[in-house]
């Protein structure tokens, strides 16, 4: 039975992966596909090699539908009532073939180039507005006071959410990695179920409101297209959920992991312009979406020297694939001058992230804003005391695994707001 190599095991912990200590880790010769224990005592295949992850992202032998994993994986992933589950998991993320193409076509117009240009300009104003609320205080939590509300407001404005629905999204807890492997009845699972139900209720209410009063906005257009294409409301709300969470969560996680990485290397912060110029390298290095939802072998297949049986699940570790020494020279070194191409930050193939051209400008805007507006920015507590998203700092325990901080208390030199409060509405 293949297990993770010693270097791979170390890099599974995001705290080490983003620190200079990672530069001493060498994963050459370690298995690119191996089996990891799950909290219930079962095991799952994990692909961490660049070539094996890229293959599994495109090969027809690996399928996305969760039913491909049989009863055990249905139990893992479908743990709320059928209506709630069907309102959140039936997007292109969990579809292949014709279903995937129809659902991707449903979402694509929301991210049209002209809309993204307008969103980028609006995001710059939003970032300044959000920082105006905290800049005079000399301290803040960059997750809850800046990154999360900034990203939510930018994304919901793009999609045409009415203000009351943006407010409802902000009132929900951040969407954390799912405790799918926790035993039934565990507090983590119960909490996640409640949050899933609240999100579904919000999305159903949004669809109902837009049906009553449609406008020239992406949500209204998606409703009309779903109706004309014969897609049901569960597929519609699942797509709305994916477009929402998959856009705002990576922005928050990118900002926190980038700052964590840079604070470990204070010399890099001496030139903020070089930091933002190295955005592609920061994305590769931090890989905010670390671990994908599983794919399932449609037939017996070999992947990276491992023999998978039909129905076996394989989890793709994008963050470790982006640290493969067979693909990247000195992969565990943060080199802001590195020319990055063909990374897997936003996956690859038919499931390449549709929102890439939204996420990248938002990540750039968030990072530029805090470096420009908050002089003397520093963590308010030791870096090794910070709290990370579940599943990101050791053995596989959650899905999707995002590499980000739950909170990021910081201090900085107080600055007056750029605009008076009465003029700051965006």
From TrEMBL:
Pfam families: p450
One MF annotation (Gene Ontology) recorded for this entry: monooxygenase activity
Chain ranges passing through the membrane: none
InterPro entries xrefs: Cyt_P450, Cyt_P450_B, Cyt_P450_sf
Family: Belongs to the cytochrome P450 family.
Listed PANTHER family: CYTOCHROME P450 YJIB-RELATED, P450, PUTATIVE (EUROFUNG)-RELATED
Name assigned to this protein: Cytochrome P450
Species assigned in the record: Streptomonospora mangrovi
């Amino acid at each position: 039975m293949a297990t993770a190599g010693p270097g791979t095991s170390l890099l599974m912990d995001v705290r080490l992966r983003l620190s200079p200590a990672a530069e001493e880790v060498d994963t050459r010769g370690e298995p690119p596909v191996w089996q990891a224990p799950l909290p219930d005592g079962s095991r799952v295949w994990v692909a961490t090699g660049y070539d094996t992850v890229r293959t599994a992202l495109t090969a027809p032998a690996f399928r996305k539908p969760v039913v491909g994993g049989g009863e055990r994986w249905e139990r893992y992933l479908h743990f709320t009532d059928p209506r709630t589950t069907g309102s959140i998991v039936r997007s292109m993320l969990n579809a292949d073939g014709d279903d995937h193409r129809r659902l991707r076509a449903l979402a694509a117009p929301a991210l049209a180039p002209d809309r993204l240009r307008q969103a980028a300009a609006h995001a710059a104003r939003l970032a300044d507005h959000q920082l105006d609320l905290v800049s005079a205080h000399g301290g803040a939590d960059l997750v809850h006071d800046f990154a999360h509300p900034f990203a939510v407001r930018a994304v919901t404005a793009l999609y045409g959410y009415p203000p009351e629905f943006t407010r409802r999204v902000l009132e929900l807890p951040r969407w954390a990695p799912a405790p799918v492997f926790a035993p039934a009845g565990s507090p983590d699972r119960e909490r996640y179920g409640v949050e899933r139900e609240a999100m579904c209720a919000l999305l159903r209410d949004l669809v109902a409101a837009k049906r009553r009063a449609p406008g020239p906005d992406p949500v209204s257009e998606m409703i009309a297209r779903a109706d004309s294409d014969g897609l049901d409301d569960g597929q519609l709300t699942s797509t709305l959920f994916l477009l929402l969470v998959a856009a705002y969560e990576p922005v928050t996680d990118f900002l926190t992991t980038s700052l964590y990485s840079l604070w470990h290397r204070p010399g890099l912060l001496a030139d903020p312009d070089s930091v933002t110029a190295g955005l592609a390298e920061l994305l590769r290095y931090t890989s905010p979406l670390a671990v994908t939802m599983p794919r399932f072998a449609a037939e017996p297949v070999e992947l990276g020297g491992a023999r998978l049986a039909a129905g076996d699940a394989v989890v793709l570790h994008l963050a470790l694939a982006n640290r493969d020494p067979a693909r990247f020279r000195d992969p565990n070194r943060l080199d802001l001058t590195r020319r990055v191409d063909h990374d897997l930050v936003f996956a690859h193939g038919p499931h390449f992230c549709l929102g890439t051209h939204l996420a990248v400008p938002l990540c750039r805007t968030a990072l530029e804003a805090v470096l420009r507006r908050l002089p003397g920015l520093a963590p308010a507590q030791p870096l090794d005391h910070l709290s990370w998203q579940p599943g990101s700092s050791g053995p596989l325990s959650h899905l999707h695994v995002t590499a980000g901080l739950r909170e990021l208390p910081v201090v900085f030199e107080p600055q007056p707001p750029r605009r008076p409060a009465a003029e700051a509405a965006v």
